[in-house]
Amino acid sequence: MKIWALTGGIGMGKSTATATLRRHRIPVFDADAAVHRLQGPGGAAVRPIAAAFPGTTRPTPRGPMVDREALRRVVLSDPAALRRLEAIVHPLVRREEGRFLARARRRGARLAVLDVPLLFETGGERRADAVIVVTAPPAIQRARVLRRRGMTEERLRAILARQVPDSLRRRRADHLIQTGLSRHHAQRSMRRLLADQG
After folding, report:
1. How far is CA 21 from CA 77, 94, 182, in A?
2. How far apart are the first and last CA of the chain?
3. How far apart (Å, rounded) are the C-alpha atoms in residues 69 and 92?
């Protein structure tokens, strides 16, 4: 089974690329969704995060969950706190990824895709046969992100500071998907890439 890694900075259009993959019945592991599950009610990350960052969880009828906004305030401008959080979350996400790949192999998938926003930042490219980078011009990226609920210029700057620059991502890519032209252009590019794999 081939493993592709799909990555790109915030607001670059990864959702367009993954939607095309899923329409072609390619199994896709969504690392962001895994983090949400791990931090949701009863998630495996809730208890260790509560211990490391008191006051960042809240009760729900289904069990305690991480209060993502409270946690964001704690780690946003504190690199040491962010590293502690990543030391808790990243191994749990890797475990989820391993289970996903095992399921894909059991089902006889010829290709599986890991959608990992912080791929290069965590060394995840070593686990893939090829890396696909989704990219868009900075002005389009910024406009997309600032339309999100609760997003601010300050928060966007903090997020971008944590991420590998797009220029470096593009240099390290095996394949590029440009989303700044149109949704149809990006979808066609992904379909061509899939066709080239036979």
Report:
1. 35, 21, 17
2. 13
3. 20
67-74: long-range contacts, CB 8 A cutoff, minimum separation 24: 68/39, 69/150, 71/39, 72/155
Q: What is the dihedral of CA 29, 33, 35, 37, to 10 degrees?
A: -110
pLDDT tens per residue, the chain (198 residues)?
999 999 998 888 888 888 889 988 999 999 999 999 999 999 999 999 999 999 999 999 999 999 999 998 898 778 899 999 999 999 999 999 999 999 999 999 999 999 998 898 888 899 999 999 998 888 888 888 888 888 888 888 878 877 888 888 999 999 988 886 666 777 788 888 888 765
Beta strands in 69-128 (DSSP E): 111-115
By residue count, the chain amounts to: 198
At how many degrees (to 10) do helices 79-106 and 31-39 cross?
A: 110
Are 35 and 93 in contact, with CB atoms under 8 Å apart? yes
Distance, in Å, from the CA atom of 137 to the CA atom of 144, rounded to the nearest integer, reads 11
